[in-house]
From TrEMBL, chain B:
Protein name, per record: Penicillin-binding protein 2
Boundaries of every Penicillin-binding protein transpeptidase domain copy: 155-472
GO molecular function: penicillin binding; peptidoglycan L,D-transpeptidase activity
GO cellular-component term (any): plasma membrane
Xref: Pfam families: PBP_dimer_2, Transpeptidase
Source organism of this protein record: Geodermatophilus sabuli
UniProt superkingdom: Bacteria
Residue ranges annotated for the Penicillin binding protein A dimerisation domain, each copy included: 52-134
GO terms (BP aspect): cell wall organization
């Protein structure tokens, strides 16, 4: 078992212990479970007219799942932010209802077909909660992670590289070479690589931020870094481009680079990094547009989807039709035709929600994401160690950036990239990986809100724990 | 690190606000546009859940919806698809709908206000809502004869009941099978659509109403009507009929068909000029009458350039805008910029046959609620009186002569007097071949227009026999 220090040497002075808010979490989880079950029931009643026979089993399962998660948080992370887990529960529950709804739609089209995507997704959610529990029980102090930074970096890179190296038959689905397909299972290793790399970025940047924050000269109010310090950002940039070239994965490429640049900015407090990052991105985007047919096609479809309505733009146009038809209130769960959008259950699940739950439903989902992200960033603000700060910021921003890029794509705000919608969309890798991500966030938020222990002799700081006063 | 963190938090807020603004834009501002887009099959799919009304001809459904096992509850079928396709159109998941399926969509889909009370009742009784039926004026014998007559050529036939304007037949070739566009298999629909796109002549075009062509000599009926209506001409009035006519202000020599001579004396009676379809005589006559008289008569027969709803949309027919006497002369023999739809051509014959009274053509006899009660019935409506009964009689006499001893002899029906006029119109390709006429001449029951695009022969060879078959089919049916 990995254990960190039981007390935090730099904790605030003892005072009134902050409330743990576990009751709040329990109540909100109860609400999420209620929404999950009601959504399932509405889907069943609208489409088949009766509740499915295993509804009680499903209800029990879901309730048990969140009860276990809650109890584990209560025991092993008692001061954790009370909004993180319920936000996740709400999104997962809604996703299950929509996936179940799409299962039924498939069965309507072909009466002989039985589609079991929702039960499979429930299994993945269960595995996700299991990993969530494992992370909280095993990882007692997030700072321990920084010890494994370079190992995790290696793991992340290997995970990222595997699909590129594998033959297309084992790694390619719909043109994106981002899978490992073995014996009926498909894993998107990129989802896990993302977390490994964020941990590495955090540890690395905490180590090097003083150097990276050094300015050489000022240009137009920006303090530019020294040329030789451009190394790390160029490496991240090159990595993203490799992902784009060898895996044709615009989304992950954009995601990795965006996360790194933002973490670099947070670590160094130098806005010049943002400008440099943006410049590098713009350059790469311009070249990618010229060189890669698939990038160009995405951009063309984005600019004028209706011109390509019967070809490359079909999916986006169908998505827009669904959203437009949904209007303010939506067709009601089970009342629309979200299955008209190809692969609605994964990339385009937001279109299904917009069509059936309307503008109000979709905006509610966006706000739940916003709550999740802002609670993550808040954790980052109040946690006392620099590594925790950067790690929480990276993880929270990863969710935000991914949601923005995906929902922006589905609604025509940005070109389509092919990232999954965290927690909502069908897909095991994404779901399980995001559970791990949130588990780490919960762990950090517990440390952030935990009251300082009564005074005692400060223990020697760990090698990786920063000893300087945290900048405010 | 907290200052940049706060900025990141605010940036995330801004990004998510952008998302929310964008979905507001799509789901509120653009909602209606997206919902009504022809490519959005969701609303159509909703329609498929309702039993769409039938299109009925003489008690037989030519378009009907039958329940299916798949998720689109009803499938549209067209038992005699190609025969009625020009009128019914199609009802497609992918390509919207056309012709009556489009023009009468509200009744068929059940959304017409006249079905409101019933829909309200459906809501309370739990009865599945369904659409109303559209009963057409078509006569199956006429329609089948018309389609059979056009087999192998590109063209159109329109048959009208002169006394009411009811459309008895409306054929257009080449035709297609609307059932194949109305299936539930988008891939098959697209494949068939592409096949139709690739056809040299678009089978989806209803040439009877959706396109217009040079009428050639059938336009001489209108010039004759204009002449007779002045009171200065009778069928026996002798008019100049030279072998060639030098068009005023030009050196262009207008010839008769095939360079033939109308009369050895260089002049002939008006009735003879129409009987042999003398170009020089009618060009000169039109010039003598002047543009205003020719134009007014053409407009009185319906050639006013305006679209018409019968309820299919009929494109406007007109004589164009002759700029001088030379062009007026050419226009008077139905060339130059004179353009008419086959329906317009049939309206000319029908008005002459109806003692000079032009009736508004109509295709829909009745609209019926799902319980077969009549929601609406089309009443015959007078569009105008282009010529007096007396002039109509004179025109009839002249047109009888065309069929009895002139260019329209192929339209003769034993035991029945037929009145008619042929037309052979020059155009970019081989000549268009026309025939308009009505029968019986003394008590007209049916008026027809036959148009064969680029038939290459004469109106008398190519189109008159088709008109005969169509009129015969109708008159045989009436005798029973």
């Amino acid at each position: 078992m990995i254990t960190g220090p039981s007390t935090d040497p730099r904790a605030a002075q003892p005072g009134a212990a902050p409330p743990k808010r576990r009751g709040t979490e329990l109540a909100l989880l109860g609400f999420a479970v209620l929404v999950t079950l009601v959504a399932q029931a509405i889907v069943d009643l609208t489409i088949t007219g009766s509740l499915r026979p295993d509804m009680a089993l499903f209800g029990g399962w879901i309730t048990g799942l969140w009860a276990v998660a809650h109890l584990v948080v209560r025991k092993w992370a008692p001061y954790a932010d009370p909004l993180l887990l319920p936000s996740v529960a709400l999104l997962v529950g809604l996703g299950l209802a929509v996936i179940h709804r799409l299962d039924l739609a498939a069965e309507q089209v072909d009466a002989t077909a039985t589609r079991q995507d929702a039960p499979v997704q429930l299994v993945w959610a269960t595995l996700g909660v299991a990993l969530f529990v494992v992370v909280l029980v095993v990882l007692r102090d997030h700072r321990v992670l920084s010890r494994f930074a370079y190992t995790l970096a290696l793991v992340g890179l290997v995970l990222l590289a595997i699909p590129a190296v594998l033959p297309a038959s084992l790694s390619e689905v719909n043109g994106a070479k981002i899978w490992i397909r073995l014996a009926g299972f498909s894993i998107q290793p990129g989802e896990f690589a993302k977390i490994c790399l964020i941990v590495f970025f955090a540890a690395y940047l905490v180590d090097k931020r003083d150097v990276l924050a050094l300015a050489s000269r000022r240009v137009a109010g920006l303090e530019l870094p020294r040329a030789r310090d451009l190394g790390p950002v160029l490496v991240a940039w090159a990595l993203s481009i490799l992902v784009l070239v060898f895996e044709r994965d615009l989304g992950s490429s954009l995601l990795l680079f965006g996360i790194f640049v933002v973490m670099l900015y947070v670590a160094t407090e130098r806005a010049s990094w943002l400008v440099i990052g943006l410049g590098l991105f713009a350059g790469a985007a311009l070249i990618a547009y010229q060189v890669f047919g698939h990038v160009q096609a995405r951009v063309d479809v984005w600019l004028s989807p209706f011109e390509y309505r019967d070809a490359a733009g079909y999916q986006l146009v169908q998505s827009l039709f669904g959203l437009g038809t949904g209007g303010l209130f939506g067709a009601g769960l089970g009342g629309g035709r979200p299955d008209q959008v190809p692969v609605a259950k994964s990339d385009f699940i937001a279109a299904a929600i917009g069509e059936e739950l309307g503008l109000f439903g979709l905006v509610a989902v966006i706000i739940v994401y916003l709550i999740l992200v802002e609670r993550g960033l808040r954790t980052s603000l109040i946690v006392r160690d620099a590594f925790g700060k950067l790690l929480a910021a990276g993880l929270a921003f990863a969710i935000a950036w991914q949601v923005f890029v995906v929902l922006g794509g589905v609604t025509g705000l940005l070109p389509l990239t092919g990232l999954t919608t965290p927690f909502l969309a069908y897909g095991g890798s994404s779901l399980v990986a995001n559970f791990v991500l949130v588990a780490v966030l919960v762990r950090i938020s517990d440390a952030a809100r935990r009251p300082a222990v009564p005074a005692g002799p400060p223990r020697p700081a760990l090698g990786d724990a920063p000893t300087e006063v945290v900048k405010q | 690190m907290n200052a940049p963190l706060r900025r990141v938090a605010i940036s995330v807020l801004v990004l998510f606000t952008l998302l929310i603004i964008n979905v507001n834009y799509i789901q509120v501002v653009r909602s209606e546009e997206l919902r009504d887009d022809a490519g959005n099959t969701r609303v159509l799919a909703e329609e498929y859940d309702r039993e769409r009304g039938s299109i009925v001809v003489a008690g037989t459904e030519v378009a009907l919806s039958v329940p299916t096992e798949d998720r689109l509850t009803y499938l549209r079928q067209y038992p005699q698809g190609p025969t009625y396709a020009p009128v019914t159109g199609y009802y497609s998941l992918v390509y919207d709908n056309a012709m009556i399926e489009r023009a009468s969509n509200e009744i068929l889909a059940g959304t017409d206000p006249r079905l409101f009370a019933r829909r309200l009742a459906d809501l309370f009784t739990g009865r599945d809502p369904s659409g109303g039926d559209v009963v057409l004026t078509l006569d199956p014998a006429v329609q089948e004869a018309a389609m059979a007559g056009l087999e192998g050529v590109t063209g159109a036939v329109v048959a009208l009941e002169p006394s009411t304007g009811a459309v008895l037949g409306m054929a257009s070739t080449p035709t297609y099978d609307p059932g194949l566009l109305s299936s539930h298999d988008p891939a098959a629909i697209r494949a068939y659509w592409e096949e139709l796109n690739a056809a040299e002549r678009d089978p989806r075009l209803n040439r009877a109403v959706s396109d217009r062509f040079s009428p050639g000599s059938i336009f001489k009926v209108i010039v004759s009507a204009a002449a007779l209506s002045t009171g200065e001409y009778t069928p026996d009035t002798v008019v100049p009929a030279p072998d060639t006519l030098t068009l005023p202000g030009t050196t262009t020599e207008l010839e008769n068909f095939g360079g033939s001579s109308c009369s050895s004396s260089g002049e002939q009676s008006l009735i003879d000029a129409l009987t042999v379809s003398c170009n020089t005589a009618f060009a000169q006559l039109g010039i003598d009458l002047g543009e205003d008289r020719v134009r007014e008569m053409a407009e009185a027969f319906g050639m006013d350039g305006e679209e018409r709803e019968i309820p299919l949309t009929v494109v406007g027919s007109s004589i164009g805008d002759p700029e001088n006497d030379a062009e007026l002369g050419v226009s008077s023999i139905g060339q130059q910029d004179v353009q008419m739809t086959p329906l317009q051509a049939a309206m000319i014959a029908a008005a002459v046959g109806n003692d000079g009274t032009l009736m508004a053509p109509y295709l829909v006899d009745q609209l019926r609620a799902p319980d077969l009660s009549v929601l609406d019935e089309t009443d015959a409506e007078v569009l105008g009186e282009p010529v007096s009964a007396e002039v109509a009689d004179q025109l009839t006499e002249m047109m009888e002569s065309v069929v009895a001893e002139g260019s329209g002899r192929a339209a003769r029906i034993p035991g029945v007097t037929v009145a008619g006029k042929t037309g052979t119109a020059e155009n970019a390709g081989p000549d268009h071949n026309w025939f308009i006429g009505f029968a019986p001449a003394d008590d007209p029951q049916i008026a027809v227009a036959v148009f064969v695009a680029n038939g290459g022969g004469t109106g008398g060879d190519v189109s008159a026999p088709i008109a005969r078959e169509v009129m015969q089919a109708f008159l045989d049916g009436q005798g029973e």
